[in-house]
Amino acid sequence: MKNTWHLFEFQDQDWVPSSLRYTLFETLECCNVILPYYQWVSKNILLRAVQEKFEQIVELGAGTAPITQRLAQDRRTNDMQLIACDLKPAIELYEDLERQYPDKVKAITTPVDFSQPHLWESSTLLVLSATFHHIAPQERLKVLRVLTQSAAGIMIFEPLRKTPISLLLATLTIIPAVLLPMLLLTKRGQLRRFFWCWLFPIAPLMFVWDSIVSTIRQWDQRQWRRAIEGEIKTREPLLKTSLNAQLVSW
């Protein structure tokens, strides 16, 4: 499969201070709530998990685990194990989730690299949200093979598509990015957000850049189908889109 240009994103850079990185994550969550992307993701995950009777749902590259949080609130996951993990786990947040939902959520506080082989339980659904586009194009087929061999079901979600509409939405993220301190006024971390969004306002600019790059990095449906059916040679994938988001499932 032909490689494409892979621009950098600030969220991928190790030199970005943790307080600034977390502010970028919060901005992403606000945008995905406004769209509403998380609601769409949770609905599709639950639909498949219930229909196919999965016993475990793993959020890979979970970041602040927004999907696990929403799934844990739904009674349809009462008989399922929910796992949040990441290469750079938000340990305190994951442990809080585990304490809040002790019979549902399991926190993995050690790094989990989903690009490397990991044999999950037999009835496991792996979920990736807003993370696959971070993988360099030349590595994507290898990662897809690893995922396919690791679990019974795979669902990959992206909040953006490679379309003019998504590119427009990416530029408009400057609005919630600038308003973040007001949108999360009652949430802990006000001083951090005031600093990075208003006093030294680089977070909004960085987030808009990342959003535009994320749009450019996306695969279209033709590329996804060619990768999964032609290269991975697994069953026909489900390809689903909303106005701005996309789902690939197999």
What proportion strand?
Answer: 5-15%
The overall average pLDDT, rounded, is 94
- Under the CATH scheme, which class of the largest domain? Alpha Beta
- Compressed to H and E, one letter per element, the order equals HHEHEHEEHEHHHHHEE
Radius of gyration: 18 Å
- CATH superfamily placement of the largest domain: Vaccinia Virus protein VP39
Can you name the CATH architecture of the largest domain? 3-Layer(aba) Sandwich
- Strand line-up across the major sheet: 3-2-1-4-5-7-6
User: How would a textbook summarize the main sheet?
Assistant: 7 strands, mixed
**Shape field:** globular
- The SS-based structural class is alpha/beta
Counted beta strands: 7
Which stretches of 5+ consecutive residues score pLDDT under 50? Answer: none
CATH names the topology of the largest domain as: Rossmann fold
In which range does the helix fraction lie?
40-55%
Measured between the Cα atoms of the first and last residue, the distance is 20 Å
| Tally of helical segments | 10
